[in-house]
Amino acid sequence: MDDARLTRYARHILLDELGIEGQERLLAARVLIVGAGGLGSPAALYLAAAGAGHITLVDDDRVELSNLQRQILHGMAGLGRPKAESGRDALQALNPDVQVQALVERLDESRLRELALAADVVLDCSDNFATRHAINRACVAARKPLVSGAAIKFSGQISVYDLRDMDAPCYHCLFPEADDVEELRCATTGVLGPLVGMVGSVQAAEAIKVITGMGEPLVGRLLSVDALRMQWHTIRFRRDPDCPVCARRGPASAASPGG
Ligand SMILES: [Zn+2]
Q1: Which positions are tagged coiled coil (predicted)?
Q2: Catalytic annotation on 243?
């Protein structure tokens, strides 16, 4: 690590739990961030600042004036531009040490799986259930850790689905896919700006922990925040043995079918 890097990342390197070794892992890491909006903004900024070496930022949307109340990756100069490209420029300006790939795409399942396979960790910073379930399926198939965040009105949630571990629950174990789920969208219900900053920042912290192997990620735990009362809660949950998405993986110790 050269002097410029030692200086830039000094406050991380000073942490015993992270150190030079953890910083080297960050610099070599490949991170996939789906969504360059409210959650993706702080998540991507903190990961780029931390020197996460390769960031792929995916969003097919363009920056609108109503985004700027909370999507801090973008500014006035980005209005009308694709969020992935506006975001890439902001991340490169913050840290030229990081390689950022901007994808202005709506990802189908096979493309998601391909991108998940190439990543060390995936951050779900999307804003709808269909995308969340598609990202989960891709991460289960690719066996990649998924850091999931959500925020609406004054409520936020974060969890980590470490799908490298056969016994760890997936997103579907906790939130089964159903046709009758009423979806709340920020566009119609509103969301407190700093709330997405809190949730996205926790996602960045969890991603750094997954990459470096330090601490205890939010695996099997759902962290929720009520920003109106500023109360945080954690609930524990287990893998659903009948989950249609991850159950067929079977526990690591189970015999393979027919074998
Ligand atoms: Zn599952």
Answers
A1: none
A2: no
